[in-house]
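Summarise what follows for lecture notes:
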Amino acid sequence: MAPTALSRRLHLQTSHPVSLTRQLIESKFPSPEYTHYNNLSPIVTVAQNFDSLGFPLDHAGRNRTDTYYVNQSTVLRTHTSAHQADAFRKDESEGYTISADVYRRDAIDRSHYPVFHQMEGARMWDRRRVLGNDVAKAVWQDVEKLPAANLKVEDPNPTVHPERNPLQAEHHTLEEVEAIAAHLKRSLEGVVFELFSKAKEAAISAGNTKVDAQEPLKVRWIEAYFPFTSPSWELEVFWQGDWLEILGCGVVKQDLPINAGVPDKIGWAFGVGLERVAMLLFDIPDIRLFWSTDIRFLSQFSSDKPIRRFAPFSKYPACYKDVAFWLRSSSSSAGGGLKSNAQDFHENDMMEVVRDVAGDAVEDVKLVDEFSHPATGRKSLCYRINYRSLERTLRNEEANNLHEQVRTQLVRRYGVELR
């Protein structure tokens, strides 16, 4: 991963589409009720990133194939929730949002990148500060202060369900959770209305015939599971003929404020991927574009103008090249059993090699074939790499050179036997 990514902070570049998306969401969570944290360091401790959130020691997210470790005790944060306990402890306001760049080893395609941006928010109520300790009454009073968005809302399920969406009965009453859920849903419906009203205006302005100017926006609440909330929901919006998941949310698991030293706080939290929303809002087809410094991209967006749809520049030709290899095993320099393969080689290792060599000159990498020899158990993989720049045509010799470097690095790092 390029070190420059650490300093780009796209969510703070005023007219960048990631930043514009952040600003739209933040506008629905005004200060002083909400504090906005946007400048937190991406380097956090293992305790912040995992332990404070109750990640088991054997959780896959802790693996080096998933997470970028700086050293044994520090990582590049994998989610904004790494700062959640600190935000609870600071207690600077009743609510907060956190926007930040986050880092994960991941696939290479048009919707995944090793650096992306998340936004999370929370609204908490402190039992010690509520008159008569009637949290439910206090929350309902706050719900009445929120404007209701002009949406068609589908919400057919009960707030809690003993199996699908359980109440944290040892910490919350049903009345409290009913009130918190109502505040959560009205708040986030307002966010979606703000975002997709702007998206609808931009689509109509661009001549998109799939968008009906007279049809109200439709959203639906779906029961979900998240490790940090219960009950939990996903919020989907009906957009251009499809239901699309926009964000996840729920009532905060009480263990989190307890572990943060604020056991009397209860409330809700949500999380959203800013690139995902920005791709819908601006009709941006490839996540790599967010990192482009090409003026043809950046000049299309401005904080001083209405939201507009991205106008593509020339589509450059693809150049596909395959790389096939036997995996190393503990018993030989190449090939081997499935058990040792799983230990020695992860698909994200392939992605990291390609990213390190070719960067954004690769559009996607796909596993197109795998084979285990029936007699020896040797395992072979074949990946297809699509070399395609967003900004110019790659010459075949350039692609050949990059591909040879990928092959060389696979041998050097992982001891594979090329086929």
User: Anything to note?
Assistant: DSSP finds twelve helices and 14 strands in the chain.
